[in-house]
Amino acid sequence: MAKEKKSRDTQKKIFVLDTSVIIYDHNAVKNFEEHDLAIPITVLEELDNFKKGNDIKNFEAREFTRFLDELAADSASLQDWIQLEGRDKGKLKVIMNTHGTKETDAEKIFDDRKNDHKILNAAISVQAENPDKKVILVSKDINLRLKAKSLNIPSEDYNTGKVKDIDLLYTGHTTIENVAPEKINELYEKGYCDIDAIPEQDVSKNHYYILKSVKSSALAYYNPVDKRLEHVGKTPAYGIKPRNAEQAFAIHAVLDPHIKLVSIQGVAGTGKTLIALAATLEQRKDFKQIFLARPIVPLSNKDIGYLPGDIKSKLNPYMEPLFDNLKFIQNQFNETDQDYQRITDMVNKEKLVITPLAYIRGRSLSNIVFIVDEAQNLTPHEVKTIISRAGENCKIIFTGDIFQIDTPYLDSESNGLSYLIDRLKNQDLYAHITLEKGERSELANLANELL
């Protein structure tokens, strides 16, 4: 609903917000135009459980409760409709009724007094009290939306931050056929050629190209600084050789000092994290530290506290894939080689740090390369928070697979990585590459294609 063009239906609506919407975006209440908003008291109870901690959900909960406190400063009660600040904004109130109506009671229908059913009952009560208005439950929880619809309560996802057509998501590279042979020869001989080698509509900043003529081909990218096409070679990075054009593009993007933000997207086995880490190690002298982080997504949605051992033991299972990539790079060399020993020294001296994302949030990101793995498990707000921490001489690399979401309230359209790719394409400081060909093994490729 948020920030979309108004439809022909001009009826004023009341949107009932679920906790998942607030945790996803604490500013959600500002994005419903002139319509009114109802917050079930159960949502405030759930937000109270999230107020302590350093994760982004804790931040979102605290910010929203502060917003409500300020909103209610000049009002006697949140049970009354309070005007939201801003032109053409609606009103907001807290709904106390969690018992539904005599005709419809979600707790009785589903035979369970869980919080979701209290939220459904709040929506039912709002619907009963406002028969002249359309009442809609907004939730990131698919099951809650389905339950609402089964009770004849209209429900929808919170759409702010969602990519509208995921099938048309920017890939970062294009194949151009029928390129003039002399242009390809010029790329190889001079290292660059004029932009007129490709159609004008295909020109995009930091975009990559596979150029093909009748007899030859070349890899290139558009340099927005010099406004020309430049040749991209299949340059190895710290012992890792690119196996296809997309991997060569990804290595080039990470190594380019003018590109400060890189995203690499692809299915399992395409080499996202490996390429990002190897290319970062190649330019280790340009930065004081390398941080490799990933969000913690607890198994079965349980907090990591239920796992045995100290904090390091609890986190090891989540960090192991990152160590696997580091070991793979290290094993490209003999144990006596300087490049092999250098990785061990960097880890021991904390020049290379592998850590959960929650441990890195809030730090000053200056003179470092920051690789964020599994970025598809971040919200758009989390991605924005990370990028906004960038200081001098900072490079940030996001990697992930937008079709492999591990968090319950995100999908391929609403996760932070898709949002980043969609919103920042064609910017001077940003480059993106979608890796399409699996390079892990023939068996892994078979699984990705047929299973």
Automatic annotation (TrEMBL):
Keywords: ATP-binding, Nucleotide-binding. GO terms for molecular function: ATP binding. Pfam families: PhoH, PIN_4. One of its GO terms (cellular component) is cytosol. Residues 13-146 form the PIN domain. In the N-terminal section; belongs to the PINc/VapC protein family. This is PhoH-related protein.
